[in-house]
Amino acid sequence: MLQLERQQDLMRLLRERKSMTVKELCGALFASPATVRRDLQVLEQAGLLTRSFGGAVLCETFPDQQPFAVRSGAHVTEKKRVAAKAALLIHPGETVFLDASSTTSYIVPHLRDIPDLTVITNGPRTCLLLAEYGIRSFCTGGEMLEGSHALVGRDAEVYVRGIRAHVCVFSARGVETDGDITDSSKAERDLKIAMLERAARSVLVHDSSKLGRCYPYVICPYTAPDNIVGE
Amino acid sequence: MLQLERQQDLMRLLRERKSMTVKELCGALFASPATVRRDLQVLEQAGLLTRSFGGAVLCETFPDQQPFAVRSGAHVTEKKRVAAKAALLIHPGETVFLDASSTTSYIVPHLRDIPDLTVITNGPRTCLLLAEYGIRSFCTGGEMLEGSHALVGRDAEVYVRGIRAHVCVFSARGVETDGDITDSSKAERDLKIAMLERAARSVLVHDSSKLGRCYPYVICPYTAPDNIVGE
DNA sequence: CTCACCTCGATCGTTTTTGATCATTTATGA
DNA sequence: TCATAAATGATCAAAAACGATCGAGGTGAG
User: Is pTM beyond 0.85 here?
Assistant: First the structure.
Protein backbone atom coordinates (compact mmCIF):
# COMPACT_ATOMS: atom_id res chain seq x y z
CA MET A 1 0.00 0.00 0.00
CA LEU A 2 1.17 3.50 -0.76
CA GLN A 3 2.34 5.74 2.02
CA LEU A 4 -0.01 8.56 1.19
CA GLU A 5 -2.92 6.19 0.78
CA ARG A 6 -2.21 4.66 4.15
CA GLN A 7 -2.06 8.05 5.79
CA GLN A 8 -5.34 9.06 4.19
CA ASP A 9 -6.93 5.85 5.44
CA LEU A 10 -5.56 6.53 8.88
CA MET A 11 -7.18 9.95 8.91
CA ARG A 12 -10.43 8.50 7.59
CA LEU A 13 -10.48 5.98 10.41
CA LEU A 14 -9.63 8.62 12.94
CA ARG A 15 -12.36 10.91 11.74
CA GLU A 16 -14.87 8.12 12.33
CA ARG A 17 -13.57 6.94 15.64
CA LYS A 18 -12.17 10.23 16.97
CA SER A 19 -9.32 8.36 18.66
CA MET A 20 -7.44 5.14 18.06
CA THR A 21 -4.59 3.19 19.60
CA VAL A 22 -1.45 2.30 17.71
CA LYS A 23 -2.42 -1.38 17.96
CA GLU A 24 -5.82 -0.79 16.41
CA LEU A 25 -4.23 1.18 13.60
CA CYS A 26 -1.70 -1.58 12.98
CA GLY A 27 -4.52 -4.05 12.52
CA ALA A 28 -6.58 -1.77 10.32
CA LEU A 29 -3.75 -0.61 8.10
CA PHE A 30 -1.72 -3.84 8.00
CA ALA A 31 1.41 -2.02 9.05
CA SER A 32 3.94 -2.40 11.82
CA PRO A 33 3.85 -0.23 14.92
CA ALA A 34 6.96 1.56 13.73
CA THR A 35 5.29 2.56 10.49
CA VAL A 36 2.10 3.66 12.20
CA ARG A 37 4.10 5.78 14.59
CA ARG A 38 5.96 7.38 11.72
CA ASP A 39 2.68 8.19 10.01
CA LEU A 40 1.28 9.63 13.20
CA GLN A 41 4.36 11.82 13.48
CA VAL A 42 3.85 13.23 10.00
CA LEU A 43 0.15 13.80 10.49
CA GLU A 44 0.68 15.44 13.84
CA GLN A 45 3.14 17.84 12.23
CA ALA A 46 0.47 18.64 9.69
CA GLY A 47 -1.83 19.50 12.57
CA LEU A 48 -4.37 16.82 11.72
CA LEU A 49 -4.14 14.87 14.94
CA THR A 50 -2.66 14.93 18.40
CA ARG A 51 -0.53 12.05 19.57
CA SER A 52 -0.94 10.61 22.99
CA PHE A 53 0.82 7.74 24.69
CA GLY A 54 -0.55 4.62 23.05
CA GLY A 55 -2.36 6.24 20.17
CA ALA A 56 -3.71 9.45 18.75
CA VAL A 57 -6.72 11.74 18.94
CA LEU A 58 -8.35 13.56 16.07
CA CYS A 59 -7.43 17.20 16.07
CA GLU A 60 -10.49 19.25 15.27
CA THR A 61 -10.04 22.97 15.24
CA PHE A 62 -12.52 22.76 18.02
CA PRO A 63 -11.30 23.93 21.39
CA ASP A 64 -12.09 20.69 23.23
CA GLN A 65 -8.73 19.07 22.82
CA GLN A 66 -6.61 22.07 22.11
CA PRO A 67 -3.68 22.89 24.38
CA PHE A 68 -5.24 26.11 25.59
CA ALA A 69 -8.32 24.23 26.66
CA VAL A 70 -6.59 23.42 29.92
CA ARG A 71 -8.52 26.18 31.54
CA SER A 72 -11.80 25.36 29.85
CA GLY A 73 -11.67 21.58 29.84
CA ALA A 74 -13.85 20.99 32.85
CA HIS A 75 -16.88 22.98 31.82
CA VAL A 76 -17.17 22.04 28.19
CA THR A 77 -20.71 20.71 28.23
CA GLU A 78 -21.93 23.66 30.24
CA LYS A 79 -20.24 26.07 27.85
CA LYS A 80 -21.86 24.36 24.90
CA ARG A 81 -25.30 24.70 26.46
CA VAL A 82 -24.69 28.36 27.25
CA ALA A 83 -23.41 28.96 23.73
CA ALA A 84 -26.52 27.38 22.21
CA LYS A 85 -28.72 29.72 24.23
CA ALA A 86 -26.68 32.77 23.30
CA ALA A 87 -26.90 31.92 19.61
CA LEU A 88 -30.67 32.47 19.79
CA LEU A 89 -30.01 36.15 20.41
CA ILE A 90 -28.30 36.58 17.05
CA HIS A 91 -30.44 37.28 13.99
CA PRO A 92 -30.00 36.98 10.23
CA GLY A 93 -27.99 39.68 8.51
CA GLU A 94 -26.34 40.97 11.65
CA THR A 95 -22.77 41.97 12.25
CA VAL A 96 -21.35 40.26 15.33
CA PHE A 97 -18.33 40.78 17.54
CA LEU A 98 -16.97 37.62 19.19
CA ASP A 99 -14.14 37.81 21.68
CA ALA A 100 -11.31 35.29 21.81
CA SER A 101 -12.53 33.10 24.65
CA SER A 102 -13.27 29.41 24.42
CA THR A 103 -16.84 29.92 25.57
CA THR A 104 -17.72 32.20 22.70
CA SER A 105 -16.06 29.86 20.21
CA TYR A 106 -18.69 27.24 21.04
CA ILE A 107 -21.27 29.56 19.51
CA VAL A 108 -19.76 29.15 16.05
CA PRO A 109 -21.49 25.86 15.11
CA HIS A 110 -24.85 27.40 15.91
CA LEU A 111 -24.21 30.36 13.62
CA ARG A 112 -24.06 28.18 10.54
CA ASP A 113 -27.85 28.17 10.28
CA ILE A 114 -28.25 31.94 10.56
CA PRO A 115 -28.03 33.42 7.06
CA ASP A 116 -25.96 36.38 5.99
CA LEU A 117 -23.93 36.94 9.12
CA THR A 118 -20.70 38.89 9.37
CA VAL A 119 -18.50 38.01 12.32
CA ILE A 120 -15.50 39.92 13.61
CA THR A 121 -13.27 38.30 16.22
CA ASN A 122 -9.90 38.87 17.85
CA GLY A 123 -9.38 35.13 18.32
CA PRO A 124 -7.44 33.42 15.52
CA ARG A 125 -8.79 30.07 16.61
CA THR A 126 -12.36 31.29 16.50
CA CYS A 127 -11.66 32.82 13.12
CA LEU A 128 -10.41 29.49 11.73
CA LEU A 129 -13.45 27.78 13.14
CA LEU A 130 -15.75 30.29 11.47
CA ALA A 131 -14.00 29.68 8.16
CA GLU A 132 -14.46 25.95 8.53
CA TYR A 133 -18.17 26.48 9.03
CA GLY A 134 -18.31 28.69 5.97
CA ILE A 135 -19.20 31.85 7.86
CA ARG A 136 -18.01 35.19 6.52
CA SER A 137 -15.47 36.26 9.09
CA PHE A 138 -12.91 38.92 9.83
CA CYS A 139 -10.03 38.90 12.22
CA THR A 140 -8.66 41.93 13.99
CA GLY A 141 -4.95 42.43 13.76
CA GLY A 142 -2.77 42.82 16.79
CA GLU A 143 -0.23 41.21 19.03
CA MET A 144 -0.71 37.62 19.99
CA LEU A 145 -1.25 37.16 23.70
CA GLU A 146 0.49 33.92 24.59
CA GLY A 147 -1.71 32.82 27.43
CA SER A 148 -5.15 33.31 25.96
CA HIS A 149 -4.39 33.23 22.24
CA ALA A 150 -6.14 36.54 21.78
CA LEU A 151 -5.08 39.39 19.53
CA VAL A 152 -4.80 42.61 21.48
CA GLY A 153 -3.17 46.03 21.53
CA ARG A 154 -3.60 49.28 19.69
CA ASP A 155 -3.88 47.63 16.27
CA ALA A 156 -6.71 45.42 17.44
CA GLU A 157 -8.53 48.36 19.00
CA VAL A 158 -8.16 50.50 15.89
CA TYR A 159 -9.59 47.65 13.87
CA VAL A 160 -12.60 47.30 16.15
CA ARG A 161 -13.24 51.06 16.25
CA GLY A 162 -13.53 51.03 12.46
CA ILE A 163 -16.59 48.81 12.68
CA ARG A 164 -20.21 49.16 13.79
CA ALA A 165 -21.79 45.90 14.87
CA HIS A 166 -25.29 44.90 15.88
CA VAL A 167 -24.22 42.75 18.76
CA CYS A 168 -21.14 41.91 20.83
CA VAL A 169 -20.90 38.47 22.42
CA PHE A 170 -18.24 38.38 25.10
CA SER A 171 -17.14 36.49 28.17
CA ALA A 172 -15.15 37.36 31.26
CA ARG A 173 -13.07 35.71 33.95
CA GLY A 174 -15.11 37.11 36.82
CA VAL A 175 -18.85 37.76 37.14
CA GLU A 176 -20.34 39.22 40.31
CA THR A 177 -24.12 39.52 40.11
CA ASP A 178 -24.10 42.36 42.60
CA GLY A 179 -20.94 44.01 41.29
CA ASP A 180 -18.78 44.07 38.19
CA ILE A 181 -17.77 41.96 35.25
CA THR A 182 -14.00 41.70 35.38
CA ASP A 183 -11.01 40.29 33.58
CA SER A 184 -7.44 39.38 34.50
CA SER A 185 -5.74 40.89 31.48
CA LYS A 186 -5.74 44.61 30.84
CA ALA A 187 -5.13 44.20 27.13
CA GLU A 188 -8.08 41.88 26.70
CA ARG A 189 -10.30 44.03 28.87
CA ASP A 190 -9.48 47.10 26.79
CA LEU A 191 -10.42 45.31 23.60
CA LYS A 192 -13.68 44.02 25.02
CA ILE A 193 -14.62 47.54 26.05
CA ALA A 194 -13.88 48.74 22.52
CA MET A 195 -16.08 46.00 21.09
CA LEU A 196 -18.90 46.87 23.48
CA GLU A 197 -18.70 50.53 22.56
CA ARG A 198 -19.02 49.76 18.86
CA ALA A 199 -21.91 47.30 19.18
CA ALA A 200 -25.58 48.21 19.57
CA ARG A 201 -26.37 45.23 21.83
CA SER A 202 -24.24 43.20 24.19
CA VAL A 203 -24.46 39.59 25.34
CA LEU A 204 -22.36 38.22 28.18
CA VAL A 205 -21.85 34.45 28.20
CA HIS A 206 -20.39 32.70 31.21
CA ASP A 207 -20.27 29.29 32.85
CA SER A 208 -20.83 28.76 36.55
CA SER A 209 -17.12 28.80 37.37
CA LYS A 210 -17.01 32.54 36.69
CA LEU A 211 -19.68 33.45 39.24
CA GLY A 212 -18.50 35.28 42.33
CA ARG A 213 -14.97 35.65 41.02
CA CYS A 214 -13.31 39.03 40.88
CA TYR A 215 -10.29 40.17 38.87
CA PRO A 216 -8.49 43.52 38.73
CA TYR A 217 -9.71 44.90 35.42
CA VAL A 218 -13.34 45.97 35.24
CA ILE A 219 -15.11 45.55 31.92
CA CYS A 220 -18.47 46.94 32.97
CA PRO A 221 -21.03 46.70 35.80
CA TYR A 222 -23.19 43.59 35.93
CA THR A 223 -26.21 45.67 34.95
CA ALA A 224 -24.65 46.89 31.70
CA PRO A 225 -25.05 43.99 29.24
CA ASP A 226 -28.39 43.74 27.43
CA ASN A 227 -28.40 39.99 27.92
CA ILE A 228 -26.55 37.72 30.29
CA VAL A 229 -26.52 34.05 29.42
CA GLY A 230 -25.49 31.57 32.08
CA GLU A 231 -27.05 28.33 33.24
CA MET B 1 0.27 3.30 -28.03
CA LEU B 2 0.36 7.05 -28.10
CA GLN B 3 1.71 8.94 -25.17
CA LEU B 4 -1.39 11.04 -24.65
CA GLU B 5 -3.68 8.06 -24.97
CA ARG B 6 -1.70 6.20 -22.35
CA GLN B 7 -1.84 9.13 -19.96
CA GLN B 8 -5.59 9.39 -20.44
CA ASP B 9 -5.94 5.69 -19.68
CA LEU B 10 -3.81 6.16 -16.61
CA MET B 11 -6.08 8.90 -15.33
CA ARG B 12 -9.15 6.83 -16.12
CA LEU B 13 -7.75 3.96 -14.08
CA LEU B 14 -6.79 6.25 -11.26
CA ARG B 15 -10.21 7.83 -11.13
CA GLU B 16 -11.71 4.37 -10.63
CA ARG B 17 -9.20 3.08 -8.13
CA LYS B 18 -8.27 6.36 -6.41
CA SER B 19 -4.71 5.14 -6.01
CA MET B 20 -2.43 2.75 -7.87
CA THR B 21 1.12 1.49 -7.64
CA VAL B 22 3.61 1.85 -10.44
CA LYS B 23 3.61 -1.93 -10.84
CA GLU B 24 -0.14 -2.07 -11.26
CA LEU B 25 0.02 0.70 -13.83
CA CYS B 26 2.79 -1.09 -15.73
CA GLY B 27 0.58 -4.14 -16.03
CA ALA B 28 -2.50 -2.21 -17.03
CA LEU B 29 -0.81 0.05 -19.56
CA PHE B 30 1.74 -2.44 -20.93
CA ALA B 31 4.53 0.03 -20.33
CA SER B 32 7.82 -0.07 -18.46
CA PRO B 33 8.20 1.42 -14.99
CA ALA B 34 10.32 4.22 -16.45
CA THR B 35 7.55 5.24 -18.81
CA VAL B 36 4.89 5.10 -16.14
CA ARG B 37 7.04 7.25 -13.88
CA ARG B 38 7.52 9.78 -16.64
CA ASP B 39 3.76 9.92 -17.18
CA LEU B 40 3.16 10.32 -13.47
CA GLN B 41 5.62 13.20 -13.43
CA VAL B 42 3.75 14.98 -16.21
CA LEU B 43 0.35 14.38 -14.65
CA GLU B 44 1.51 15.51 -11.24
CA GLN B 45 2.80 18.75 -12.76
CA ALA B 46 -0.63 19.18 -14.27
CA GLY B 47 -2.08 18.82 -10.80
CA LEU B 48 -4.15 15.73 -11.63
CA LEU B 49 -2.52 13.40 -9.13
CA THR B 50 -0.13 13.30 -6.22
CA ARG B 51 2.82 10.98 -6.40
CA SER B 52 3.73 8.91 -3.41
CA PHE B 53 6.63 6.50 -3.11
CA GLY B 54 5.59 3.43 -5.08
CA GLY B 55 2.67 4.93 -6.95
CA ALA B 56 0.24 7.81 -7.07
CA VAL B 57 -3.01 9.01 -5.52
CA LEU B 58 -5.78 10.80 -7.36
CA CYS B 59 -6.01 14.51 -6.69
CA GLU B 60 -9.73 14.62 -6.02
CA THR B 61 -10.87 18.17 -6.39
CA PHE B 62 -9.21 21.05 -8.07
CA PRO B 63 -6.41 22.13 -5.75
CA ASP B 64 -8.03 25.49 -5.16
CA GLN B 65 -11.08 23.92 -3.62
CA GLN B 66 -9.28 21.24 -1.68
CA PRO B 67 -9.68 21.55 2.05
CA PHE B 68 -6.68 23.08 3.69
CA ALA B 69 -5.99 20.00 5.75
CA VAL B 70 -5.80 17.64 2.82
CA ARG B 71 -3.65 19.94 0.77
CA SER B 72 -1.21 20.50 3.56
CA GLY B 73 -0.91 16.78 4.19
CA ALA B 74 0.99 16.15 0.97
CA HIS B 75 4.74 16.69 0.56
CA VAL B 76 5.12 17.12 4.29
CA THR B 77 8.64 15.77 4.59
CA GLU B 78 9.84 17.83 1.68
CA LYS B 79 8.25 20.96 3.09
CA LYS B 80 9.90 20.33 6.42
CA ARG B 81 13.32 20.02 4.81
CA VAL B 82 12.80 23.18 2.82
CA ALA B 83 11.59 25.02 5.91
CA ALA B 84 14.66 23.94 7.88
CA LYS B 85 16.91 25.35 5.18
CA ALA B 86 14.99 28.60 4.99
CA ALA B 87 15.23 29.08 8.75
CA LEU B 88 19.00 29.37 8.39
CA LEU B 89 18.46 32.63 6.53
CA ILE B 90 16.81 34.27 9.51
CA HIS B 91 19.01 35.92 12.12
CA PRO B 92 18.61 36.97 15.75
CA GLY B 93 16.75 40.18 16.41
CA GLU B 94 15.11 40.36 13.02
CA THR B 95 11.55 41.24 12.11
CA VAL B 96 10.03 38.62 9.84
CA PHE B 97 6.99 38.45 7.58
CA LEU B 98 5.51 34.98 7.12
CA ASP B 99 2.69 34.37 4.71
CA ALA B 100 -0.24 32.07 5.45
CA SER B 101 0.87 28.98 3.56
CA SER B 102 1.46 25.56 5.04
CA THR B 103 5.05 25.50 3.82
CA THR B 104 6.03 28.61 5.72
CA SER B 105 4.30 27.34 8.85
CA TYR B 106 6.84 24.53 9.01
CA ILE B 107 9.51 27.15 9.64
CA VAL B 108 8.04 28.04 13.00
CA PRO B 109 9.63 25.22 15.05
CA HIS B 110 13.05 26.25 13.78
CA LEU B 111 12.55 29.83 14.88
CA ARG B 112 12.39 28.88 18.54
CA ASP B 113 16.17 28.80 18.74
CA ILE B 114 16.68 32.23 17.19
CA PRO B 115 16.55 34.83 19.95
CA ASP B 116 14.61 38.07 19.94
CA LEU B 117 12.54 37.57 16.81
CA THR B 118 9.39 39.45 15.89
CA VAL B 119 7.13 37.69 13.44
CA ILE B 120 4.16 39.13 11.56
CA THR B 121 1.86 36.81 9.66
CA ASN B 122 -1.49 36.89 7.90
CA GLY B 123 -2.15 33.24 8.76
CA PRO B 124 -4.12 32.68 11.97
CA ARG B 125 -2.89 29.09 12.08
CA THR B 126 0.72 30.19 11.81
CA CYS B 127 0.09 32.83 14.45
CA LEU B 128 -1.25 30.26 16.89
CA LEU B 129 1.70 28.03 16.20
CA LEU B 130 4.10 30.89 16.89
CA ALA B 131 2.38 31.55 20.19
CA GLU B 132 2.69 27.91 21.15
CA TYR B 133 6.42 28.09 20.52
CA GLY B 134 6.67 31.22 22.62
CA ILE B 135 7.66 33.47 19.75
CA ARG B 136 6.57 37.12 19.86
CA SER B 137 4.06 37.31 17.05
CA PHE B 138 1.59 39.63 15.44
CA CYS B 139 -1.31 38.87 13.18
CA THR B 140 -2.57 41.15 10.45
CA GLY B 141 -6.26 41.84 10.48
CA GLY B 142 -8.44 41.25 7.48
CA GLU B 143 -11.07 39.09 5.90
CA MET B 144 -10.70 35.35 6.27
CA LEU B 145 -10.23 33.59 2.94
CA GLU B 146 -12.12 30.32 3.23
CA GLY B 147 -10.00 28.20 0.97
CA SER B 148 -6.54 29.03 2.21
CA HIS B 149 -7.24 30.29 5.72
CA ALA B 150 -5.38 33.49 5.01
CA LEU B 151 -6.30 36.98 6.11
CA VAL B 152 -6.47 39.35 3.17
CA GLY B 153 -7.97 42.58 1.91
CA ARG B 154 -7.40 46.25 2.50
CA ASP B 155 -7.15 45.90 6.29
CA ALA B 156 -4.43 43.30 5.98
CA GLU B 157 -2.52 45.43 3.50
CA VAL B 158 -2.76 48.54 5.66
CA TYR B 159 -1.41 46.52 8.57
CA VAL B 160 1.53 45.27 6.57
CA ARG B 161 2.33 48.70 5.16
CA GLY B 162 2.66 50.02 8.69
CA ILE B 163 5.63 47.73 9.28
CA ARG B 164 9.23 47.54 8.12
CA ALA B 165 10.69 44.04 8.27
CA HIS B 166 14.13 42.61 7.68
CA VAL B 167 12.95 39.62 5.74
CA CYS B 168 9.81 38.24 4.10
CA VAL B 169 9.43 34.48 3.81
CA PHE B 170 6.75 33.54 1.32
CA SER B 171 5.54 30.74 -0.87
CA ALA B 172 3.54 30.55 -4.09
CA ARG B 173 1.34 28.15 -5.99
CA GLY B 174 3.37 28.33 -9.18
CA VAL B 175 7.12 28.67 -9.70
CA GLU B 176 8.63 28.84 -13.17
CA THR B 177 12.42 29.05 -13.08
CA ASP B 178 12.49 30.79 -16.44
CA GLY B 179 9.45 32.93 -15.78
CA ASP B 180 7.34 34.19 -12.91
CA ILE B 181 6.28 33.30 -9.42
CA THR B 182 2.50 33.15 -9.48
CA ASP B 183 -0.54 32.62 -7.28
CA SER B 184 -4.13 31.58 -7.84
CA SER B 185 -5.74 34.16 -5.59
CA LYS B 186 -5.57 37.86 -6.31
CA ALA B 187 -6.14 38.83 -2.70
CA GLU B 188 -3.29 36.68 -1.45
CA ARG B 189 -1.02 37.84 -4.23
CA ASP B 190 -1.67 41.47 -3.35
CA LEU B 191 -0.79 40.87 0.27
CA LYS B 192 2.41 39.03 -0.60
CA ILE B 193 3.47 41.93 -2.79
CA ALA B 194 2.81 44.31 0.09
CA MET B 195 4.93 42.17 2.40
CA LEU B 196 7.74 42.02 -0.13
CA GLU B 197 7.71 45.78 -0.56
CA ARG B 198 8.03 46.34 3.17
CA ALA B 199 10.84 43.83 3.73
CA ALA B 200 14.53 44.37 3.06
CA ARG B 201 15.15 40.78 1.99
CA SER B 202 12.92 38.13 0.49
CA VAL B 203 13.00 34.34 0.68
CA LEU B 204 10.81 32.14 -1.50
CA VAL B 205 10.14 28.64 -0.19
CA HIS B 206 8.56 26.01 -2.37
CA ASP B 207 8.28 22.25 -2.68
CA SER B 208 8.75 20.44 -5.96
CA SER B 209 5.03 20.31 -6.72
CA LYS B 210 5.10 24.05 -7.40
CA LEU B 211 7.74 23.89 -10.12
CA GLY B 212 6.59 24.48 -13.66
CA ARG B 213 3.10 25.45 -12.59
CA CYS B 214 1.61 28.72 -13.66
CA TYR B 215 -1.34 30.63 -12.19
CA PRO B 216 -2.99 33.88 -13.25
CA TYR B 217 -1.66 36.30 -10.64
CA VAL B 218 2.03 37.23 -10.86
CA ILE B 219 3.80 37.94 -7.60
CA CYS B 220 7.22 38.73 -9.08
CA PRO B 221 9.71 37.39 -11.62
CA TYR B 222 11.74 34.34 -10.62
CA THR B 223 14.85 36.51 -10.44
CA ALA B 224 13.37 38.87 -7.83
CA PRO B 225 13.70 37.03 -4.50
CA ASP B 226 17.03 37.32 -2.73
CA ASN B 227 16.89 33.64 -1.84
CA ILE B 228 14.94 30.76 -3.28
CA VAL B 229 14.77 27.65 -1.15
CA GLY B 230 13.61 24.44 -2.77
CA GLU B 231 15.10 20.99 -2.74
C1' DC C 1 18.10 7.97 -48.27
C1' DT C 2 19.90 10.45 -44.37
C1' DC C 3 19.65 13.15 -40.50
C1' DA C 4 17.54 15.15 -36.58
C1' DC C 5 14.30 14.29 -33.15
C1' DC C 6 11.37 12.04 -30.04
C1' DT C 7 9.89 8.19 -27.29
C1' DC C 8 10.78 4.12 -24.95
C1' DG C 9 13.18 0.61 -22.20
C1' DA C 10 17.44 -0.94 -19.70
C1' DT C 11 21.16 -0.17 -16.49
C1' DC C 12 23.22 1.68 -12.37
C1' DG C 13 24.03 4.36 -8.37
C1' DT C 14 21.16 6.69 -4.93
C1' DT C 15 17.27 7.43 -2.02
C1' DT C 16 13.17 5.98 0.46
C1' DT C 17 10.55 3.03 3.01
C1' DT C 18 9.96 -0.39 6.27
C1' DG C 19 10.14 -3.78 10.04
C1' DA C 20 13.35 -5.48 13.64
C1' DT C 21 16.13 -4.66 17.63
C1' DC C 22 17.25 -2.40 21.91
C1' DA C 23 17.74 1.17 25.33
C1' DT C 24 14.77 4.66 27.34
C1' DT C 25 10.62 6.68 28.86
C1' DT C 26 5.89 6.50 30.45
C1' DA C 27 1.66 4.93 32.70
C1' DT C 28 -0.32 2.22 36.22
C1' DG C 29 -1.03 -0.32 40.32
C1' DA C 30 0.96 -2.36 44.42
C1' DT D 1 7.34 5.50 46.44
C1' DC D 2 8.70 1.86 43.68
C1' DA D 3 8.20 -1.94 40.32
C1' DT D 4 6.41 -3.72 36.24
C1' DA D 5 4.64 -3.90 31.76
C1' DA D 6 3.83 -1.38 27.77
C1' DA D 7 4.92 2.10 24.51
C1' DT D 8 8.28 4.98 22.44
C1' DG D 9 12.40 6.79 19.87
C1' DA D 10 16.78 5.76 17.77
C1' DT D 11 19.37 3.01 14.93
C1' DC D 12 20.15 -0.38 11.32
C1' DA D 13 19.93 -3.37 7.35
C1' DA D 14 17.35 -5.15 3.49
C1' DA D 15 14.24 -4.55 -0.11
C1' DA D 16 12.03 -1.74 -3.19
C1' DA D 17 11.57 2.34 -5.85
C1' DC D 18 13.58 6.31 -7.79
C1' DG D 19 16.20 9.59 -11.01
C1' DA D 20 19.78 10.11 -14.39
C1' DT D 21 21.82 8.54 -18.26
C1' DC D 22 22.44 5.98 -22.43
C1' DG D 23 21.36 3.45 -26.49
C1' DA D 24 17.67 1.33 -29.57
C1' DG D 25 13.92 1.98 -32.51
C1' DG D 26 10.66 4.56 -34.94
C1' DT D 27 8.99 8.89 -37.45
C1' DG D 28 9.03 12.86 -40.33
C1' DA D 29 11.45 16.54 -43.07
C1' DG D 30 14.64 17.68 -46.23
Answer: no
